Amino acid sequence: MRITGTGGGRGRRAAAMATTVLTASALLLTGCSSDDGDDSNASDSGGNITLTLADFGQFGYKEAGLFEQYHKLHPNITVKEDTAANEQDYYPKLLQHLNSNSGLGDVTGIEVGRITEIVSTQADKFTDLSKSIDVNDWVSWKEKQATTTDGAVIGAGTDIGPMSLCYRKDLFQQAGLPTDREEVAKKVQGGWEDYLKLGEQYQAKAPKDTYFMDSASAMYNAVVSSSTKQYYDADGKPIYKENPAVKQGWNLAAEAASKHLTHGLAQFQDPWKAALRKGSVATVVCPAWMSVQIQNYGGDAYKGKWDITRAPGTSAANWGGSFLAVPKSGKHVKEATELVKWLTAPEQQAAVFKAVGVFPSNKGAYELASVKTAKLPYFSDAPIGQIYADEAKSIPEAVLGPKDGTIKDTISTQINNMEQRGTKPDKAWKDATETIDKAIG
């Protein structure tokens, strides 16, 4: 998942580096779509070429200075990033380009919620990377997500979203709750049910005009993400209606809405950003890529007031992550493949983590100092390198399906309706399942 309008897809800072806050314009990159007629991937008379990398949200390469660095290493190659702000807009265009075999970037990003559909229906359009990268360099489950049944690897893993919990120490203190990250972790160690109990304790003495959590749909996604079975079984059959993890997440979200523990805000939309600026949210479910959002939109006023601890429960969870793939139709497939290999190597993934906080999926990065010893001053020097690396190593392999992203987004929308409109849980679930069934066929 990247930082997009849907909840996609993700900054972290090492202890030794300055902690400048990213601007909103850097965080939500806005670019033109890669339409037909773009001649930027053609070679000039001197053998110089431009590679177009089409992506969405914030992959962090520009912020980490990697395009400039790559140009220094390869003076004849210039990389142009073509970024869509919203993955929900980006993906339909990607499918259109794949179906027409035109308008594609030399390298294209694919969000984890879409990877199974791409692997099962569009794999023949992409270059097999299995001879270019060593899949054993990644956390075990990551590259499996981009591997076809005959062993072709169509995408190299960029980031992942190991889970944590971000919380406001000052608001917890005012509500009579513990503020130490280990003590907070103990309060929710029994799981997400304990998280709601903590929420009730918070709301009983909550500072005026504050809410325990930003979004019940975010909590729902975290619950489901901790399960190996989510929306499909291993045979590709949709199981979201009967899966206990989905039911648990839905019921907890409904409870949070009914008890008014949630601000009821759709993440990454303007009201959500405003709530962080106003300081009216006490906790946010925090995949690795989330803390930079809080830092960016919260601003300097809340530096040192936030902290990060382990996610509720004992099951490791992943929410988000993406891949880089190389369309076969590109004019510079060899050069594009080399770029993907370089961008997803440990040193480059560590540089992106340092710049914008998206956590590496390449295990080699975990031993680099900029990741291993990373702390986040904005979040009270939380040892994020340790927290996320420990979580990443124990995340189980989840079964993904072709319409995971569609199912998740639809359910999240109906959870927002329970929060914002007071829609009854039964009605919201009925609306969600009817929409999903039409979408997945």
Elements, N to C (H/E) = HEHEHEHHEHHHEHHHEHEEHHEHHHH
What class do helices, strands and sheet pairing give? alpha/beta
DSSP helix fraction: 40-55%
Distance between the termini: 24 Å
Please tell me what the overall shape is.
Answer: globular
- Percent strand equals 5-15%
Strands, count:
9
Q: Could you characterize the architecture of this molecule?
A:
- The chain has 441 residues and is an alpha/beta fold.
- Helix content is 40%, strand content 13%.
- Strands 1, 2, 3, 4, 5, 6, 7, 8 and 9 form a nine-stranded mixed β-sheet that branches.
- α9 runs antiparallel to α17 and α17 packs antiparallel against α18.
- The N terminus is likely disordered.
Short synopsis of the structure:
It is built from 18 helices and nine strands. It has 441 residues and is an alpha/beta fold.
